[in-house]
Amino acid sequence: MIDKTLMRLSGMKRIMTMLAGFALVQAFVILLQGKFLAEGIVHSWNRQSLAGLWLPLGLFATAFVIRQLIVWVRNRIGARFAMTSSAWLQAQLLKHLYALGPAAVAKEGTGNLVTMALDGIPEAENYIELILNKILNMSIIPWVLVAYIWYENWLTGFTLLIMFPIIILFMVILGLAAQDKSESQYAGFQKMSNHFIDSLRGLKTLQLMGISRQYANNVYDVSEDYRKQTMGVLRIAMLSTFALDFFTTLSIAVVAVFLGIKLMDGTIPLYPAMVALILAPEYFMPIRDFGTDYHATLNGKNAMKAIWQVIDQPLPTDTNVLPAFSRWRAQDTVTINHLDFTYPNERAGIQNANLQFTGTEKVAIIGASGSGKSTLLNLIGGFLQPQKAAMTVRG
Q: What is the pLDDT confidence band of residue 178, given thresholds at 50, 70 and 90?
């Protein structure tokens, strides 16, 4: 259930171990909270002295405070780790984009990369912050609670245990549908971002050519497609939330009816029935929290996937970084001999180019579209890897 890209973040295993330890402690605190509350209710039901009620109520209050403290600490740890990791991701993204150069920006789309660096990073941060605690809660807390309920009354524990996989199955089915819709929505968001940036860049040209209104309709169509995709994701999210709430509420109701019949028959003591009824909502709470926030994290998951795809792009290896120098002098030269470059898709690039630039002269590189002007600049800048070349700068 843990996204593989999360495990690539620095310190993830240490943070997960720490949060898992807190989750285990929190599970036992929730268990004690339910236990002491049930003891207090049973004590009152048996009409015992009021003095004997203060101890379970005091222990219940103590467990409640400890639980809230653990939740606060876990949220602080998760938020701090998410902030640090997102800042590292942003730095790596910008560093990699700078090394990849203009060719990568043109390939991915300026609007897409700007949105990824500005909006995608906060969404990835939100995803990291929410998903860790939610998954650990769902992986640890229910099993501690159901083990104690089983110990008090095995039939109730068995009933809760068989209901959990059914809810998980429905969540998986709806989750896969939501993920497909979300990926489609994120692709639409990238497309809309690129259209928006392109329209801003070429607004003057579109006006001069008299097709600005036509392009405005194109932007409207793209944004309308994105709106429909977003509504599709929201429909799936609302359906899954309804299904999750329905099945968890139904499960708790089944347990309550079952325990009520047992109590009327006198086949179960009051304490096991009360502790099971109190802990049953806590048993289903982690999966309800996960289901509620799952859709809120899908955008962050998609953004994080897109960020890693950019970071994983290979960089040119055969590069020499020039030493720092104060200024370019009149006698300095850039010499290029026998420059050959062909793109991976066998698209033509540059063949056997020989060039020399001297001093502060102004050089115009002219040629038809696709003749290799941008390719030449990217090769000189080290953003592309030539198949063959002899380049010297200042000797």
A: low
What is the location of CATH 1.20.1560.10 in the chain? Answer: 4-311
- Domain 4-311 is classified in which CATH homologous superfamily? ABC transporter type 1, transmembrane domain (1.20.1560.10)
* CA distances in angstroms from 384 to 16, 379, 389, 393, listed in the order given: 39, 5, 12, 17
350 vs 373: CA distance, rounded Å: 9
pTM of the model: 0.74
Rg (CA), the chain: 31
Q: How far is CA 31 from CA 34, 132, 323, 379, in A?
A: 5, 22, 64, 65
